[in-house]
Known about the structure:
The structure is a single chain. This protein is of the alpha+beta class and 181 residues long. It contains four helices and ten strands. Strands 5-1-2-3-4-10-6-7-8-9 form a ten-stranded antiparallel β-sheet. Strand 1 and strand 2 form a beta hairpin. The longest helix is centred in the middle third of the chain and has 12 residues.
Amino acid sequence: MKSEKLKELVQLRKAIRIRPKFATDQTIYGFPLVVTDQFMLLHEIHDFHLNGYTIIPLPKLFAVRSGGRERTLERILAEEKVLDKVGCPYNLNMDSFHGIFKSIQALAKNVIVETVEVDGNMLDERYMIGKIVGMSARSVAIMNFDDTGKWDTEPTILAYKQIKWVTFDSEYINTFSKYLT
Length: 181
């Protein structure tokens, strides 16, 4: 789906389902809030409630759907009084990954960064969760914490070209972050 069609769905406040290019069995539902030529900011939906924000590079999208199933989702969300809460209170620089990460860092929000790298027939996916501690023109440094709530001793450097998507302000991130050691 081209950015013009996605921008139209932003104006119409329509829910969508997306599938990433390299993990096509994975799906995310949500409302596109901002679409640039390179990125989309999605207010994610999980189990009929709003669950944070995901930023997706448009070249990493495999498929976008906005049809009957999504209209049913919208109807349920309207009845549950969730639809009126769709939106983003944050002003993000969506011009580049550098701008995106600088904006999220200024909010003091932890992030989940999922990456994918294709090497021949091999697919290498990574999942980092933690604090943005630095960025350059080509990469971001994340101080990761593990599933026991302990921080790594060194940041992990992730190249922007490998990023599948970035999530912040989700229930999982916010709740886990309160209990880090």
